[in-house]
Amino acid sequence: MGKPRHTLKTLRAIALEHAGVARPDLALMARELGQIVHRDSAALAARFSRLRRHGADLERWMLVQRSKPSVSVMVMAWPPNYRTPVHDHAGLWGLELTLVGALEVQSWNRDPVSGDLSALGRDWLGPADGTWFEGDQNHVHRCRNLSGHDMALTLHVYGGELSRYHTYEQVAPTAGWTSRVQQGVLAGHLRF
Question: Which of 44, 68, 122, 187 could lock onto 59 through a cystine, CB 3.0 to 4.6 A?
Fold first, then answer.
């Protein structure tokens, strides 16, 4: 088992190494990050124990941000039963990997003309499992912590800063989808 600080530095180094190109191999990045998470799961749980005791809302903690090429690496803390709105990622590529707990990820494709969403499927992610998206402006998804009792933690690597994005809501089952611009808010910066 690795030491918590060393494990975080290793995750950060892998993310930055892969993100150093315009179109990173997200599957390879997910495999390499997942191996470290699988190997050092106890160390990660210990390192993030304080995040796992926080409030009732999703928290985003910056691990590292770089401008050339643009990449941000965050840890998110998901309260029990927390579910995001359906949202996009402002056309950024991204990878989301579960560190502790389990998530459900529902994905949709947004029609660029009508704005309607069509379901693509669901993924269930346990520790060291990841999902990714290639920077498609029309990819949207919703994530949910599957536990009714425990906080989940995830690692997010984005090809840029996710400061503004859209959320989508369907007013009625047969109605179209409306969108609203949202501002990303950080809870803070993680230190080694």
Answer: 187
* Entry pTM: 0.93
> Which domain range does residue 19 map to?
4-189
Angle, vertex CA 47, rays to CA 79 and CA 152, nearest 5: 20
Residue located via tokens 């990173």:
24
Encode pLDDT of 162-188 as tens digits: 889 999 998 887 778 889 999 989 998
Calpha distance 61→57 (Å, rounded): 13
Within the chain, residue ranges assigned H as helices are 4-18, 26-39, 41-47
CATH number at residue 60: 2.60.120.10
